């Protein structure tokens, strides 16, 4: 992991905290972003015929002094979106995260069962953001109203219905998780949820001494942006005819876009490899038919997976 972000000196430094939202469409990703911003700026699936198809970003200053830049990404686990499209949008996401990523919010839903696509959560996140991104991940479970109606805590829900891959994500992300109820109208509950989430962002910042997460791809993108800016400045300093300036700017932009496309292609290959490995794991399921003493048939299914330390979900 490379850490190239500027150090924060508390919130008084006015350092913007880049918070990236990831997750499957329909899990409440955009609604969680709206809760962080304090108003409806991201359009959720429930209010639109489509989904978040482009990275969107909105900045806000929260009541407790956080200056945040929330970046909403396309649904990472939506089979309708191609690896090529997702890769291009994540490269765009990295261009929007000036100074690096301060936290990645993985939004899961306690309202619905986890999908097969979501089983690739770990490999997808690492393919898109780098191998050490989990050190900056916070898991948000939406659907808090459903658990409240059932008089159930998040810990009880996870103990009852916690897939192995979610246990691994939670463990590797340091047990950082929050339960959100995006349907509540209780202003006190809204503020408490946001406070808990931003407290975990603070915890990440303290752990990493105020440095944002960056990887090689991020540094390559920023280097290309810097080159483009310098060439524009050099061009402006020369007394060229306007038509020539316009033509040269177009060529510079085309060259820059070609570099971005090359980076997207590299990321796409990593993502496809990760998804293929996950598919191979899923297709390696084996089933054995047997019979009980009374003649009743039984079916045993074995699922290959990496060994995990610890056998249950827990909340710190």
Protein described:
By secondary structure, this protein is of the alpha/beta class. It is built from nine helices and eight strands. It has a six-stranded mixed sheet, covered by helices on one side. The chain has a two-stranded antiparallel sheet with strand order 7-8. It starts with 16 loop residues before the first strand and ends in a 14-residue tail after the last strand.
Q: How many strands appear in the DSSP assignment?
A: 8
Shape: globular
**In sequence order, what are the helices and strands, one letter per element?**
EHEEHEHEHHHEHHHEE
Helical amount: 40-55%
State Rg: 22 Å
Assembly of the depicted chains: single chain
Specify the biggest β-sheet. Answer: 6 strands, mixed
Task: Look at the structure and give the mean pLDDT.
Answer: 81
Query: How far from one another are the termini?
Result: 26 Å
> Could you give the order of strands across the largest sheet?
2-3-1-4-5-6
Which blocks of ≥5 consecutive residues have pLDDT under 50? 3-12, 46-50, 285-289, 295-316
Strand content: 5-15%
- H/I helix tally: 9
Give the structural class. Answer: alpha/beta
Provide keyphrases for this structure:
6-stranded mixed beta sheet; disordered C terminus; 8 strands; two-stranded antiparallel sheet; single chain; disordered N terminus; alpha/beta; 316 residues
Could you give a short description of this structure?
Helices cover 44% and strands 15% of the residues. The protein is α/β, with parallel strands linked by helices.
